[in-house]
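Input set for joint prediction.
Command: fold jointly, output C-alpha cells.
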Amino acid sequence: MKREPVLRVVGKLLIPYMLVFALYVQFHGDYGPGGGFQAGVITAAAVIFYALIFGLPAARRLVPEALVETLVAAGAFLYIAVGFVGLALGGNYLDYFVLDPDPVAGQHRGIFWVEIGVLVTVSGVMLKVFYMFAGRGRGS
Amino acid sequence: MMAVTVAAIVLQRNLFSVVVLAGVYSFLMATVLVALDAVDVAMTEASVGAGISTVLLLGALYLCGGEEAKPLSRPWVPLAVTLVIVGALVYGTLGLSAFSDPQAPIHTHVVPRYLGQALAETGVPNVVTAVLASYRGYDTLGETVVVFTAGIGVIALLRRLRRKGGSK
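C-alpha cells >
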C-alpha cells in the first residue's frame, strides 16, 4: 500500500489527530468517558495505522521495538510504584489520600499516574503484539 | 441484527468476511452498550473489538490464507458441549434479579456510596473512572498486570519461534 497517494495523504492528515484524540481520552477521562485503557488502544491504533500505510519498517523506525518493550514493562511498573509511594507516605498500598496534603487532590494525583501506567502498558502490549504478528513472513 | 451477524459468521466459509463481520458485530455491541448508558465500555468495545482485534485477525489471515478448511469429521461432541454450557448459562441468568430492579443486591451494597460520595471523595466527576482507578485500584492493577503478562507471553512464544526459524 506504500504507493497509494490518497492513503498516504489521508494517513498523514489523520494520525496526528488520532494521537491528540488519544491524549484527550486519557486526560479527559476524569470528566467524560475514557481513561487509560481506551487511550492506550487509540495510541496503538494510530501507530498500527501508520504501519499499515507506510510499511512495517517505517513504523519500526518511528517506534523502535526496544522502546515498545520498555513501555510494556514501564506502565505496569509505574502502577505498582504508585502503590508503593502511597505505602511510603504512610497510607495503605494504593492509597491515594496521602499523595497530597489535600486528600481530594491526592486522589486526583493518584488516579492520574495510575491511568498513565495503564495507557503505557496497554499501548505497548498492543503495538508489540502487532509487531510480532506483522513481522512474521508468510509460511514461516 | 446481531443474531443475523452471528449466523452469517457461522455460515460464512470465507475467513476475510468472517473477520469483517466480527468487526460489524463489535460495533453493534458497542451501540447496545451506548443504549445501556455504558459509554466507557462501549468505547472499549469499539476500539478493541472492532479495531485492534480486526487488525490482528487480518494479520493472522495474511499468514494462514483466507479459506476455512473443511472439517475432517462431524463435530457433534463440541456441539453437544456447547449446548450444555449455553443451557447452564441461560439457567444461571434465571437466578439474576430483574433488569434495572432498584432492590437488586448490586444496587444496594456499595453503589449508593460510589454514586453519592465519589465526587466529594475523589474530585472526579466521572464515577466510572473514580471506581476504576481509586475504589477498585487493586482490580485495575490486576488488569494491568494481566495485559502485561499477555504481552510478555506473546513475546516469549513468537520470538522463540522466529529464532528457531532463523537458525535453520
